[in-house]
Amino acid sequence: MMKYLIDWRAYDVKFVEVVLHDNEACYGVIQQSDQSIKIAVTQPGSQQREALLHEILHAIEVHYRLDFKEGEIHLLSVGLMQLFAEKNKPIREWLCNSKSL
After folding, report:
1. What CATH number does residue 31 fall under?
2. Dihedral over alpha carbons 63, 69, 72, 76 (to 10 degrees)
3. How many other CB atoms are there within 10 angstroms of residue 52's CB atom?
4. Whole-angstrom Cα distance, residue 22 to residue 17?
5. Is 19 exposed, middle or buried (CB count within 10 Å of its CB: 0-12, 13-18, 19+)?
6. What global pTM score does this model have?
7. Which of 21, 48, 57, 91 has its CA 20 to 30 A from that of 73?
8. What is the SS3 assignment for 91?
């Protein structure tokens, strides 16, 4: 199981077969009550990564009392995934590892 921190709050990331939100299947969901994120393993790896980033953005939104619409979270997660894509490897490495460009 993966964990990640937003400030002082630790979230567990669980990869499961089925993810439900309001009784409908979805790619991922965050549960603030137990500080967990569930990601559906039935989707391709790239979709799992985007879903995880999407749910992490929801956690950031709640933690810092932001007010994003669902569409804004989606656009941010897609844009950030493009930023971290292989074609942007020098920027990704610099942001993540403090390597110089």
Report:
1. 1.10.10
2. 20
3. 22
4. 17
5. buried
6. 0.86
7. 91
8. helix
Task: List, in order, residues 6 or more apart from 30 with CB less than 8 Å away.
Answer: 11, 36, 37, 55, 58, 59
Q: Looking at the 3D structure of the chain, how many domains does it have?
A: 1
Question: How far from 49 is each of 33, 43, 46, 65, 84, CA to CA, in Å?
Answer: 23, 10, 5, 24, 11
**Residue 64 carries which DSSP code?**
T
Task: Write the pLDDT tens digit of every residue in 54-99.
Answer: 999 999 999 999 999 999 999 999 999 998 887 888 887 888 886 5
